[in-house]
Amino acid sequence: MQKKVAITGMGIVSSIGMTVEENFNALISGKMGISTIENIQTVHKDVIKVGEIKFTNEQLAQQLQLPAENNFSRTAMLATLAAKQAVENAGIVDINEFRTGLISATSVGGMDMTERFYYQYFDDESCRKYIKSQDAGDTTHNTADYLGLKGFVSTISTACSSAANSIMMGAKLIQSGQLDRVIVGGTDALSKFTINGFKTLMILSDTYNTPFDNNRKGLNLGEAAAFIVLESDEVVQKQNKKVLAYVSGFGNANDAFHQTASSENGEGAFLAMHKALKMSGLQPNDIDYINAHGTATPNNDLSEGRAILRVFGENTPEFSSTKPFTGHTLAAAAAIEAVYSILALQNNIIFPNMNFKTPMEEFDLLPVTQLTEKQLNHVLSNSFGFGGNCSTVIFSKN
Question: What average pLDDT does the structure give for the chain?
């Protein structure tokens, strides 16, 4: 890369913890956050399992000390909690001291609130404040306003690769000299819309998700938010900042194969990984660990596995999916897995691919199933979305 992009802070809320430390402890202890639904009234409540954060909206609002008249959706509150952590972790006191931006990714936006009051808007004036939260950008602006950010604000929605693309956009803005610091990440809350939508697609599992297992049945939806702070080398040097890791390469590609399915040979995933490696200047054998997209759907794991083999061949590095811990958090997935990739680098640990039992019959690829210590310098993280939008980000120690 022409210009280093440092990561100086991170924050996360998920079904396995409300802080980075809680998430790390859950990952190393094998504590999964998959359960039955408690916060949403749905006919699927006892049929599917999800990665749900067990705090109500009222409890989240109390944690943020929001005024009673606020119009924050659950998606916005999760985002704000995680972004606030990231800013504090980066030691940022004056958020507008440098040219600073916020790029947040979401697919649900404020749907968790707007769907709740759909039939009441004409008769109940009190709930109309939530109408504009349907706009995905409203989630981002609420977070920006809470943080006091006056700079560049943008929202990305490319399905399940959204947060990876927010990281890429933030890195590009720093590399091009347009911004000095960008808070990037993603957020999504569980909603009836996504539950019903994925149920219709028949890719939800009624048990715990099992990525890369021959008998995988589908994904568990989850909710989460995570953000990382990207800063230019100049800011890092000027403030003598501690660097958690670097964004060393990234790539985005679209296989234009299907509205929701990935191509059988993993063309988009292959191109995204290839582009990321080329940008980073790394060779395939330089990658020490792959944090796989690994949704546990029949289509994704076959497509991603074939793409990994096309890139790495017989020298495929250790890989695992962390989605058995959190469920698939849609637009937030690449952001929480960016945090997990950084934690892996910092601690020289590969997190286990939980629930794996039977190798896939199509190829000889075995994920890491036990917590494994290994010297890590470069971690590649995959995120693939509906519409064929495939994204890869490489995180490095230096």
Answer: 94
How does pLDDT run across 232-276, given as a tens digit for each residue? 999 999 999 999 999 999 999 988 777 667 777 789 999 999 999
Whether 302 and 258 have beta carbons less than 8 Å apart is answered as no
H runs (alpha helix) in the chain: 20-29, 57-64, 74-89, 111-114, 136-147, 162-175, 192-200, 233-239, 267-280, 298-312, 323-326, 333-347
Q: Which residues contact 43 (CB under 8 A, 6 or more apart)?
A: none
Q: What is the mean pLDDT of residues 284-302?
A: 96
Burial of 339 (0-12, 13-18, 19+ CB in 10 A): buried
Given a contact cutoff of 8 angstroms between Cβ atoms, the answer to whether 72 and 112 are in contact is no
Task: List, edge to edge, every strand of the sheet that includes 224-232.
Answer: 152-156, 100-105, 181-188, 224-232, 5-13, 245-254, 389-396, 378-385, 289-291, 318-320
Q: With contact defined as beta carbons under 8 Å apart, do 216 and 323 qualify?
A: no
Question: Do residues 392 and 236 touch, judged by C-beta distance below 8 A?
Answer: no
pLDDT over 80 at 383, yes or no: yes
Greatest CA separation found in the chain?
64
Active site residues: 160, 293, 328
Pairing of strands 372-373, 152-156: unpaired
pLDDT tens for each residue of 105-140: 999 988 888 777 777 767 777 777 777 777 888 999
Q: On the CB side of 167, how many CA atoms lie within 13 Å of its CA?
A: 38
Cβ atoms within 10 Å of 398's Cβ, excluding its own: 10
Q: What is the arithmetic mean of pLDDT over 363-391?
A: 94
**CA dihedral of 312, 204, 11, 116, whole degrees rounded to 10:** 150
Distance CA 365, CA 351 (A): 17
For the segment 359-373, the average pLDDT, to the nearest whole number, is 97
Q: Residue 321 to residues 11, 261, 298, 336: CA-CA distances in angstroms?
A: 20, 19, 14, 12
Instruction: State residue 123's pLDDT score.
Output: 77
Residue 226's DSSP bridge partners are 12, 186
pLDDT over 50 (residue 1)? no
pTM for the whole structure: 0.96
> Identity (one letter) of the amino acid at 378?
H
